């Protein structure tokens, strides 16, 4: 089912596309910002060689490959300037379900870009890939990410208390989800 001919998902102001070698310095730079990395699984600084390994790993993957995380580069339409990335993990045990995540450069935050990118990603997963359910999780202290998930139409399903050991401490995860039928209703409403 997986194929590698994926190229671009276009949104109004953005494109979600495969990473290019020219993106990697900017990718490593915003992921090296301690505030960007604070609630993520990596630590700052984020080395360029890690970005290069990610690029190599993704070069032959399709975004809908069960059991794999796929990172979409998010760039401004026209300029191709990298402003962030969105990830999707299709479950290996049930490929009708996926988890998403997102990271944006500080200079691109607060402009609605992340909401636009996540909405386009959800359209892709539901309308083009036929997913039944998409989930997301975020540290409960990451109020901006939680607000974005609610803003795009995901519902809070729960809180797992001290469920993740991250950067030397136990953290809580807020769980969000949206079903295909809910997404379709949101788009029609």
UniProtKB/TrEMBL annotation:
The lineage of its organism: Bacteria, Bacillati, Actinomycetota, Actinomycetes, Micromonosporales. One of its GO terms (molecular function) is acyltransferase activity, transferring groups other than amino-acyl groups. Residues 14-185 form the N-acetyltransferase domain. Pfam families: Acetyltransf_3. This is Ribosomal-protein-serine acetyltransferase. It comes from the Bacteria.
């Amino acid at each position: 089912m997986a194929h590698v001919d994926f190229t671009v998902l276009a949104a109004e102001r953005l494109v979600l596309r495969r990473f290019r070698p020219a993106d990697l310095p900017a990718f490593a730079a915003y992921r090296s910002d301690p505030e960007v990395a604070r609630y993520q699984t990596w630590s700052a600084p984020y080395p360029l060689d890690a970005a290069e390994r990610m690029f190599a790993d993704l070069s032959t993957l399709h975004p809908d490959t069960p059991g794999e995380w796929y990172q979409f580069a998010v760039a401004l339409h026209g300029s191709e300037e990298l402003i962030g990335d969105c990830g999707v993990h299709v479950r290996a045990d049930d490929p009708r379900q996926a988890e998403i995540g997102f990271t944006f450069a500080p200079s691109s935050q607060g402009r609605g870009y992340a909401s636009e990118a996540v909405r386009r990603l959800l359209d892709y997963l539901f309308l083009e890939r036929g997913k039944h359910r998409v989930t997301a999780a975020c540290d409960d202290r990451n109020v901006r990410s939680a607000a974005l998930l609610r803003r795009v139409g995901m519902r809070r399903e729960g809180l797992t208390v001290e469920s993740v050991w991250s950067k030397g401490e136990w953290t809580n995860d807020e769980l969000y989800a949206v079903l295909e039928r809910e997404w379709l209703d949101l788009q029609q409403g």
